[in-house]
Amino acid sequence: MRTARLVEGLREQTGGFIRAVAGKPQDTRVPTCPEWPLRTLVGHVGQEHRWAAELVRKGEQLPVPDPWDADPGAPEDWARWLREGADDVIHAIEEVGADTEVPTFLGPRPAVSWLRRMLSDTCVHHYDAAHATDTAFQVADDLAADVISEHLELLAAQGWETLRPAAAELRGHGERIGFRLPSGSGWVATRTPEGVRWEHGPVHADAVVTGPAPDLLLVAYRRVPPEADGLTVTGTRPLLDHWLAHAAL
To answer: Which SUPFAM superfamilies match (predicted)?
Structure first.
């Protein structure tokens, strides 16, 4: 996906997040982040944008901040604070160059990889906020598709099992899990003895979830069950359940 579209996407999802939290009580519980009140979720989103921006500018690893330490300010200032955080990471990547290698959890990668990571996380947390506040959640199909692709890229990346030991449970002997769009194309993840491999194209797999890209995104991130409205499941359900239980980022 073009960098310009990723920039648009981060701003779109940050805007959606802002609308979801606007005027809502700070102590609203977030069911999909069960230990967090809404204020902590707001703080986390703005905090991680600023943290990623600093990492990109400095070109060195930084300690991952504690969401409970974030201070988003008064609720009436949340919108400005969140927009400034998104702009900060966007500007940092523009300053160093999207293709310039910077540190990531998985070694040096182009700076634009942090834009994708922030887009993915902001999108998922937009849903968390919308679900908590009974607000509509929307994400464009192309952005949802890229979030799914980025999710699978991380699961298949060398070194991911070191970061997330549970991911070692995703190794297998050729079992395939599919995320299929109504068109028939989508994503297929294959469990191999060496780890996860994935590809985009026609979906033929042992366990398949079919639905629109935004809904498949929410299944992949375990925000909604595979049998939620608008989705269908075919094939070996225990295989799919095992995948989802161990594929968390």
So the answer is: DinB/YfiT-like putative metalloenzymes (SSF109854)
Please list, residue by residue across 153-175, b when 16 or more beta carbons sit within 10 angstroms of its beta carbon and e when fewer do.
Answer: ebbbbeebbeebeebeebebeeb
Does 172 lie in the same domain as 124? no
Phi, psi of 164 (to 5 degrees): -130, 85
d(CA 43, CA 241): 32
In a domain, 148, yes or no: no
Name the amino acid, one letter, at 197.
R
Residue 170: CA count within 13 A, CB half-sphere: 27
pLDDT tens string 86-95: 999 999 999 9
The per-residue DSSP string of 99-113 comes to TSEE--TTSSEETHH
| Residue 128, domain extent | 3-139
For 1-116, list the strands marked E by DSSP: 101-102, 109-110
pLDDT digits (tens, 9 = 90+) for 11-63: 999 999 999 999 999 999 999 998 899 999 999 999 999 999 999 999 999 99
Task: Decide which of 105, 123, 139 is a domain's last residue.
Answer: 139
Q: How many other C-beta atoms lie within 10 A of the C-beta of residue 31? A: 11
Query: Residue 143 in 3-state DSSP?
Result: helix
- CATH code of the domain containing 238: 3.30.1050.10
Q: Is residue 154 part of a domain?
A: no
Supply 14's token pair.
């940050």
